Hints:
The complex is a heterodimer. By secondary structure, chain A is an alpha/beta fold. Chain A has a single domain (2-225), classed as HUPs (Rossmann fold, 3-Layer(aba) Sandwich), CATH 3.40.50.620. Helices cover 27% and strands 30% of the residues of chain A. Chain A contains 7 helices and 13 strands. In chain A, the strands form 2 sheets. Chain A has a 9-stranded mixed β-sheet, sandwiched between helices. A two-stranded antiparallel sheet of chain A has the order 2-3. In chain A, helix 2 (68-77) crosses helix 5 and helix 3 (95-107) crosses helix 4. By secondary structure, chain B is of the alpha/beta class. Chain B has 2 domains: 4-144, Rossmann fold (3-Layer(aba) Sandwich); 168-290, Rossmann fold. Chain B has 7 helices and 14 strands. In chain B, strands 6-5-4-7-3-1-2-8 form an 8-stranded mixed β-sheet, sandwiched between helices. A 5-stranded parallel β-sheet of chain B has the order 11-10-12-13-14. In chain B, a hairpin with a 2-residue loop joins strand 4 and strand 5 (99-106). In chain B, helix 2 packs across helix 3 and helix 4 runs parallel beside helix 7. The longest helix of chain B is centred in the first third of the chain and has 16 residues, at 14-29. Chain B is elongated. Classes of the chains: A alpha/beta, B alpha/beta. Chains A and B meet through helix 3, helix 4, strand 7, strand 9 and strand 12 of A and helix 2, helix 3, strand 4, strand 5 and strand 6 of B. The complex binds flavin-adenine dinucleotide and adenosine monophosphate. Flavin-adenine dinucleotide sits between chains B (108, 178-180, 204-206, 218-223, 235-237, 239, 241-242, 245, 255-258, 261, 274-276) and A (13-14, 118-119, 143). Adenosine monophosphate (AMP) binds at residues 6-8, 36, 38-39, 60-63, 90, 95, 98, 102, 116-117, 119-120, 123-129 of chain A.
Amino acid sequence: MKILVAIKQVPVRDSLLAAAPGARWIEESSLEYEINEPDAYALEEALQLKEAHGGEVIALCAGPDRASSTIREALAKGADRAIHIEVDDITSWDTLASAKLLAAAIRTESPDLVFTGLQSDDLGAGQTGVVVAELLALPHATIIMQVELDGSSLRVKRELEDGWFQHVAMPLPAVLTIQSGIKKLRYATLMGIKKAKTKEVKSLSAADLGVVNAASYEVSGVNVPQRTKQTQIVSTVAELVGKLRDEAHAL
Amino acid sequence: MSGILAVLEAGHKLSAETLAAAQDLGAQLGLPVHSVEPTIPYTADAYTDALAALIRDKQFQVILFPHTYQVRDYAPKLATRFDKALISDVIRLRVESGEIRATRQLFQGKLNAEIRPIGHPVFLSLQAGAYRADGAAAAAVEALPAPTTEPRQRPEEKFREAQRAVDLSAAQTIVSVGRGIKEKENLHLVEELAAALGAEIAASRPICDSGWLPMERQVGSSGQTVAPKLYVAVGLSGAIQHLVGMKGSKTIVAINKDENAPIFEVADYAMVADLFEVLPALTAEIRKAKG
Ligand SMILES: Cc1cc2nc3c(=O)[nH]c(=O)nc-3n(C[C@H](O)[C@H](O)[C@H](O)COP(=O)(O)OP(=O)(O)OC[C@H]3O[C@@H](n4cnc5c(N)ncnc54)[C@H](O)[C@@H]3O)c2cc1C
Ligand SMILES: Nc1ncnc2c1ncn2[C@@H]1O[C@H](COP(=O)(O)O)[C@@H](O)[C@H]1O
C-alpha cells in the first residue's frame, strides 16, 4: 500500500493576524507555522494503515522554503519520504492552480491512496482533495471518519450534516479528505527526529511539473470583518453579571 | 441561451437562500435564472456528470450552490471539469460595475477576502446566512440529464450513532467551552460556572474530538443546534461551523482573550480577557447574584 499525504503548512493557531499592506494576503513576517490540523490526522491515519498493511507513506507539500520544517516533522513522525514542491508565492495560487501542482507530483508516484485534510485552516476552501481526484480521474470521498481496507477494496465512513453518517465503498486508487479527530495523534520520538534527517526529500518546482499559475479568481482585498451585531464590551465580572441580570434578564 | 443556474438540494434549508441569491444576481446582471434540484441518488460521480452536461448544454455563466456537506463533496469536481476553481463558502455576494464580487472568510472567520471571479463559468457556493430566503420567486426549472457513466462510489444507507442521551436543544442556559481551556484538567472551571448558572455544558468540536467531553455535547454543524436564553462561550473562537449551531441563542456572552475572535461578532456581551482569571470570579459573582 503506497499512501501519499498532502500536508499544508499554515500559521499556528491563535496567531495574531493582520492584513498585509496592499491587502491581498496577511502580513507574514512575524508569524510561526505548523502543520494544518486535519492534515496531521490524515498523516496519522496513513501511518496506522501502513503499520497494519505494510507499504509506504509519502508526505507531499507545496510551499516556500519554510515549509521544510513541517515536512521534517512528518518524516519524524514516520513518513518514509517526502516531496516538496517549492513555490515561494503559494498564497497567490488559487485552489485549482495549487491542486494542479499537487496532482502533477502525485501522478509521478501512482499511489494506491491519496489523503488530504478536509480543509485548510488559512484558506478554508475545503476542495483541494476533490479537485486533485478529478484531475487524476480517481474516485474520492470527503469528510472521512474511518477507513477500512481489505485487499484492493476500500470502505470509508463519511460524516454528513446533523449527526448523520454513511459508509461508502469504492475501488482503489482513491482520494480521501480526512476529518480532524479520526485517530489519536502520535508525537515524534527522539529516534524519529534523528531518522528524519536521513530521509529523502525530493524537491520539485512548478516548472519541473509543467504547471503554470492560471487563476480563476483574484483576491482584491483582505480585511477584518465588521461586526453586524451591537456587541457590548464589558470589562469586569460585576458589570457582566449586572447586565445579564438587569438588562438581558438572562439569570 | 445563457444565464444563472441555482443548483438546489432537496429538503435543505439553504436551498431557498441560494435561489434568492440567484434571483438577486439575475436582476442585477440582467440574466435569466434557472434552477435544478437533482433527484437521482447522490454520488459525486453521478452529480458531476449530469450537472456538467446540463451546464455545457445550456451554457450557464454562473452556477450557485448552497454550501452544504454534499456540495463540498462534488462541486469542486464539477468546477474542475470547466477548468475553474469553485469560490466556496461565500458569505456575501454583490454586483459592482456589472461584475460579481464575493466575500469569503479566511482563517475560520478571523479575516474576510474580497474575490473577483475571472472568466466564465463562475462557480460559487453560499454559506448559511449569506442571503435572506424570503422573496425568492420561482425560477425556470431544469431537468437533470441522466449521468452517462457508472459512478465509482457505492454509498450505503445513512445512519446515526446511538441515541443522544443529552438533548441540548431544550436547555435554557448553556456554558460552552472551546480549546482555550487548554487541558482537560481545567474543565472544572467551566463545570463550576455551569453549576452556578444551572446550565448544561456544551463544547466545540475539538474538545469532543479529544474525548474531554462526550460527542453529544458538541454544538455546531456536525453536532447539535441549540437556542437557549443564555449561551456563554468560553475560550471558543467562533468558527462558522460552530456559529451555525448556536447563533439563534437569545443572549450570547463570549469570553476570549483575542479581541478579533469571530465569536464576538455574534456576542451581545463580550469580555476580552483571560478565561483563567475570569471564570472563578464570574462563578463567585453569579452565586452571589442568585443568592
Ligand atoms: C466539516 C466541518 C465540520 C465541523 N463541525 C463543527 C461543529 O459541529 N462544532 C464545532 O464547534 N466545530 C466544528 N468544526 C470545527 C471548526 O471549524 C473549528 O475548528 C472549531 O469550532 C474550533 O474550536 P475552538 O473554538 O474550541 O478552538 P480554536 O479555534 O482553537 O479557538 C480557541 C479560542 O480560545 C481563545 N483562548 C485561548 N486561550 C484563552 C484564554 N486563556 N482565555 C480566553 N480565551 C482564550 C483563543 O483566542 C481562540 O479564539 C467543523 C469543521 C469542519 C471543517
Ligand atoms: N500547498 C499545499 N501543499 C500540500 N497540501 C495542500 C496544500 N494546499 C492544500 N493542501 C491539502 O488540501 C487540503 C484542503 O485544503 P483547502 O482546499 O485549501 O481547504 C489540506 O488539508 C491539505 O491536505
